[in-house]
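Researcher: Please generate the 3D structure of the following complex. Treat every line as part of one assembly.
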Amino acid sequence: MTNGDKIKENSINNDLSKIKTAITDIESNKIVTRGYSQEDLIANITFPDMVYLLLKGDLPSPKESKMFNHVLISFCDHGVTSPSTQTSRLIASSGSPLNVALSGGLLSFGKKHAGAIEDSMSLFQEALNDDIFDVYNFENYVNSKDFDNSIDEIANDIVDIYLNDNKKIPGFGHRYHTKDPRGAKLMDIVREEDFIGKHTKLALAIEKILFEKKGIHINIDGANGAILSDMGFSSSLGLGIFMIGRIPGILAHVNEEITQKEGFRKFCNIDDISYCGYEDKHLD
Amino acid sequence: MTNGDKIKENSINNDLSKIKTAITDIESNKIVTRGYSQEDLIANITFPDMVYLLLKGDLPSPKESKMFNHVLISFCDHGVTSPSTQTSRLIASSGSPLNVALSGGLLSFGKKHAGAIEDSMSLFQEALNDDIFDVYNFENYVNSKDFDNSIDEIANDIVDIYLNDNKKIPGFGHRYHTKDPRGAKLMDIVREEDFIGKHTKLALAIEKILFEKKGIHINIDGANGAILSDMGFSSSLGLGIFMIGRIPGILAHVNEEITQKEGFRKFCNIDDISYCGYEDKHLD
Amino acid sequence: MTNGDKIKENSINNDLSKIKTAITDIESNKIVTRGYSQEDLIANITFPDMVYLLLKGDLPSPKESKMFNHVLISFCDHGVTSPSTQTSRLIASSGSPLNVALSGGLLSFGKKHAGAIEDSMSLFQEALNDDIFDVYNFENYVNSKDFDNSIDEIANDIVDIYLNDNKKIPGFGHRYHTKDPRGAKLMDIVREEDFIGKHTKLALAIEKILFEKKGIHINIDGANGAILSDMGFSSSLGLGIFMIGRIPGILAHVNEEITQKEGFRKFCNIDDISYCGYEDKHLD
Amino acid sequence: MTNGDKIKENSINNDLSKIKTAITDIESNKIVTRGYSQEDLIANITFPDMVYLLLKGDLPSPKESKMFNHVLISFCDHGVTSPSTQTSRLIASSGSPLNVALSGGLLSFGKKHAGAIEDSMSLFQEALNDDIFDVYNFENYVNSKDFDNSIDEIANDIVDIYLNDNKKIPGFGHRYHTKDPRGAKLMDIVREEDFIGKHTKLALAIEKILFEKKGIHINIDGANGAILSDMGFSSSLGLGIFMIGRIPGILAHVNEEITQKEGFRKFCNIDDISYCGYEDKHLD
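Model: Done. Output below.
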């Protein structure tokens, strides 16, 4: 006798073991993704185009295809300095397999570590598309304010608001670099390729003002956030694209860690730990 | 007073918070990966080349570059049928964010799900490179056996051993497809591109015999296992490359799940659960 | 030459590899947790007291000790119906080890699955402690409203607000049970033990009104949310305590899954997947 | 049209969305675990008994109940020194939620970090139960050797084999402590409580010889491995029980990390990273 004889689950839940998908259709000896047979895709497109097709549903234009390739490369690696890479190496050093070490590293993409790309995309997209401009995501900060159409004025307002509040604008400035070479290079490329939509225009306008006032440049998150917004990606996919670009780098680090075959790592040595709790207590 | 005043940790452990890396050098305003500045890489290579550079340390030849692009695409997606995709969708449906859902899916790459690519790479590499041919990875199965140089004879021996043992040869046959269209397409491409090294030669020889005897074709794992072995990748990186190719597909599924915004999924309904434990017991 | 010769990281980051902790002091041959030597703790207290000591910093009173034991047991297992348990079994079925399967299951404690305990704790604590009562966590919903001191009136207001909004009150009602036997039992015990603080009083008052109006009872999350609030736990630890109680159950399921040694599970069969994407497209 | 109209999956796979469980039976308003109603369990047993019931299927004897409580406490915490705790704190410091930080920490229980408890259980159980004694787990090391019945002789053989091979015996010796206070205390308790089965007898015999020859004592893994083996737990559950005991400690650390609200941690500072890769290369 199954549990089903004794209890009646509501009908919505029953439906949840059925699934509708628009991504891939599997038939015997035929695999069709976003309308194209995988044989066709394997033979004829580039891997960045495949990523674009999976996430957006259609193939990119030739210009988007080229730019999306630059974007993915730019995320590749920032050495052993990033928390995700350190977490993956830490786990790998405990003897866990490749997929487990990678998996753990992805859990380090918390708000503080990987939020900037999505925050910058939200900033650009909300500043330009929404009637009510919410300068700090999801907080009603300036909803009574009227914004002019001019992108320069919007940029001015954004910088003013953040600086008055003594907050960092997501996508600008870098912990290690006074000028993030990746952000700068990407902006060079969009200029050369004439791939400048309204979001990139806004990003460049913000950078100009910020640099004059504070000597701060656009970083990789701001540059990619602007480019991806111009391509029509929703901010909710920003971290996803960052991860696709970064994962090969993390795997290279995990592989290096495993190959080095040392003992397990720690983020602090015993000398760096100080105890600040109770003095000795005793149970009666 | 720190713990370090009270206890002496051995010196090896102290070294473990120092790290040597050959992947990326970070200097102020300069990021150099595998010897190339990232600005140079962002502007001039393809993303598959970037993956290859990170994992192997050097850029691919033009032919390898082309083939590695085909390989990455071929892993892209197999619909909602694979355990990793199902796990990621299950987690996404509970309201967890993108990186968390992806991370959980990667944990499903256990021995039963994603072992075939590495197993086929081990099989090909051990069959051709090692004096003692260990047909089942790491088990001394046929170590007394003399193998001829001929790839056809090796293929014959492999098929005989597995069939006699009633075991599947890793990289051949598919649960859903009588002829995996991805494996077939990849083998077409290596023929067209004349990208056939000794491992691919062996894979094709095995397929020929298996098809004659059993009607079984090479699958995606066997095809990519052979190509990656010919490129000089160690079997321990097989799953890593599979994951790089598959993750964009998993993210597309997670995004679809989140967009559909239904309740949380289950892999079984209450009707499908049957209880087979103790009858009622009581505490005194 | 190290990277440190080339780049100057800010001083805050350097401090982050030093760590201060008030939990456990490690000296050679001596381990002291929250002031007590672990030898003392191992010999003299109960495991629930140990959990309480770790999380709250001090040992519970005898009454709290007894009640905390009931609380932990009540979370133990809800069969194969919960998403976390299903995720863990799914991962275990792919051949991944025990810790990996457990880890993946915990990732399913997203907002939709495990949010109710913390939501109910926030509701009770905010309703009773805060000047501005925010009935939906973190939304300024009723901040202009004056609340009387009377717990019955607060309960009335809460029920009115939620019912008017056609929303579920966190901690009341259950998908499978018209009367969650665990919630009911815990409320019986607090009455017997006279362990009724203001939060439990509020929970019981809400249940009384909800039952009269809608036939809805308190569930496990509401009952434990009230008891833990009376013990002084912050809502941010609600999910932590739930996990401590539930993990033994998940491990029992993972072990059962591994022991059954079947193929890998899925949350849907191929018959349950329908494709709703593009018709066939072709690359030129 | 569903995929199922187009493809026929094998019948075994269809069965995998049905599930048989002996753990918990869910009926409307009734939850029965291992034969007991949860109301009964919540009111009448201890949480350690609940853990035992879930994992072994039956309630412990009074003596086992007492001892299992000591065992669970002994795993509670080893400060910020262990890789799992460090991983969890690292992830928490990135802004990820409680369950995600805990989940990542569990991924650090790789072979090098948490293998000792299961290795010591395998060692004791294989030494005493199996005809062919496999002193290094799963390797046929001494399978031709005849062992006497005497536990002292078995202990002697084990120590000889490991010392000759210059290997550590799992469950003995400690990185930080010359005498692990937890292992010593547990052995005191089994003596007081007269809870000494054949596995504990063997562990004590090994410790005696090891101490004479090398000054090495039993550690927490060896002590618990012996006790749990005497209770009839299979070695495959050793890590599970360790995790149940340790998770409250990890959660206390995660909570401390979140409360401290500093920036994200790293296991190494930029000064500790040295680059050992290619000198500058350029793309043509």
